[in-house]
């Protein structure tokens, strides 16, 4: 079974014809049948062919059989976010030439795509999954492909597309239920909190049962954010949950997650109109995050908004920060933040006409097209009040109908 594929691979790599390889051993026709798996063959013949190819058939078969086990281990390390092990296995598999002739070639490519996503190499991921889109895949591989598309769309903040991809997964043939977490994230940002909470609970059960402590932190953070949007719980109790999550982050030595928890706590204080503390926490989150990153821009935008609401910085300071945010957004080609920082600049510079024109004609259409539900809700309300204030009643009525239709 394995011998034929191995012989063909090394014969072609050596630049030998079937006749040249088989000279004084067996016929070219017999080698062709061995390579195609169409005939029985003696161990002596395969050993002679292996010797001529300068390989150990025993070692090559052992390597071939280990591919599946190594791929499973790689996938698990990616899910568990065990970066060192994932990096090590990626390097080992990259050097394994036999993987490309194995039955696991497509699975390897899919896992490589997910690995590249974890390294924020979105172009590399997209190149792979586009090529695999029209390939004949096993049911499990098809589920993994949909999962990777979902994660890719989440990274691009295209949450409607993410939901469509993830909901295409057949849970009977693809039982890797960490995709529930990505569904929860997608539904949360699409403002569908009941489904978000339900899938987050399922994901939490899976991560706890597999002792995936880092992903438990992620999921508990998400659940807390969802709860805080709708439940008027005692803030002291909520604060204890945040403090517990921060302590968990510190115990697991994961500063990136600590930054996320700080950011979410800042949002909580912002909703309670404690802008001073919100700004402080946004700034604490920014100190941990990489400056030229989408996550940093998210906290920077929150920090500027808190400072505006709380009158904590001068207009010149706020303009400077907004320009810095816009410059980083454009450098990273992060369109969402380019729109958000541009809106901030128009508002801070009191360019009212340009602000509302830009909001109506460019920013809102972008937020709607790409499923940025939170931004849509915020800025549609703002635009509605502007239309009402400026007696643009037809536009106000039209926008009101649009807003109401999206609530049902």
UniProtKB/TrEMBL annotation:
Instruction: Give all residue intervals belonging to the HTH cro/C1-type domain.
Output: 7-61
InterPro entries in the record, alphabetically? Cro/C1-type_HTH (IPR001387), Lambda_DNA-bd_dom_sf (IPR010982), TPR-like_helical_dom_sf (IPR011990), TPR_rpt (IPR019734)
Enumerate the Gene3D superfamilies for this protein.
lambda repressor-like DNA-binding domains, Tetratricopeptide repeat domain
Q: Which interval of the chain is the signal sequence?
A: none
Q: Give the CDD domains listed for this entry.
A: HTH_XRE
Q: Where are the TPR repeats?
A: 259-292
Q: Which PROSITE patterns match?
A: HTH_CROC1, TPR
Q: Does the keyword Transmembrane helix apply?
A: no
Which Pfam families does this entry report, sorted A to Z? Answer: HTH_3 (PF01381)
Supply the alphabetized keyword list. TPR repeat
Per its record, what are the GO molecular function terms? DNA binding
Q: Which SMART domains match?
A: HTH_XRE
User: Can you say what this protein is called?
Assistant: Helix-turn-helix transcriptional regulator
């Amino acid at each position: 079974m394995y011998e034929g594929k191995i012989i063909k691979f090394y014969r072609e790599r050596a630049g030998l014809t079937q006749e040249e390889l088989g000279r004084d051993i067996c016929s070219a026709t017999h080698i062709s049948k061995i390579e195609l798996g169409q005939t029985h063959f003696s161990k002596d013949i395969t050993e002679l062919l292996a010797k001529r190819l300068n390989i150990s058939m025993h070692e090559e078969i052992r390597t071939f059989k280990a591919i599946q086990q190594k791929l499973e281990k790689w996938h698990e390390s990616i899910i568990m976010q065990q970066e060192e092990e994932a990096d090590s296995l990626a390097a080992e598999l990259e050097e394994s030439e036999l993987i490309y002739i194995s039955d696991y070639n497509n699975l390897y490519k899919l896992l490589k795509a997910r690995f590249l996503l974890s390294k924020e190499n979105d172009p590399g991921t997209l190149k792979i999954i586009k090529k695999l889109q029209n390939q004949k895949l096993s049911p499990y591989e098809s589920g993994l492909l949909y999962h990777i598309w979902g994660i890719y769309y989440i990274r691009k903040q295209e949450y409607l597309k993410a939901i469509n991809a993830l909901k295409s997964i057949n849970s009977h043939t693809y039982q890797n239920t960490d995709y529930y977490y990505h569904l929860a994230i997608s539904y949360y940002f699409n403002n569908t909190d009941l489904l978000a909470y339900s899938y987050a609970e399922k994901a939490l059960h899976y991560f706890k049962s597999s002792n995936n402590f880092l992903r438990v932190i992620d999921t508990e953070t998400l659940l807390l954010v969802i709860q805080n949007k709708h439940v008027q719980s005692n803030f002291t109790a909520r604060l204890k949950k945040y403090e517990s999550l921060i302590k968990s982050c510190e115990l697991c030595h994961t500063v990136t997650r600590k930054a996320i928890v700080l950011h979410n706590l800042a949002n909580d204080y912002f909703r309670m109109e404690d802008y001073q503390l919100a700004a402080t926490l946004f700034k604490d989150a920014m100190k941990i995050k990489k400056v030229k990153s989408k996550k940093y821009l998210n906290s920077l935008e929150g920090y500027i908004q808190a400072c505006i609401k709380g009158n904590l910085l001068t207009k010149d300071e706020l303009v400077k920060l907004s320009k810095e945010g816009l410059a980083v957004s454009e450098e990273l080609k992060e369109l969402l933040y380019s729109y958000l920082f541009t809106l901030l600049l128009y508002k801070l510079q009191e360019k009212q006409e340009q602000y509302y024109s830009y909001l109506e004609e460019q920013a809102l259409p972008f937020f709607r097209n790409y499923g940025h539900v939170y931004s849509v809700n915020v800025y549609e309300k703002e635009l509605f009040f502007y239309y009402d204030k400026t007696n643009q009643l037809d536009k106000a009525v039209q926008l009101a109908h649009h807003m109401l239709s999206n609530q049902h």
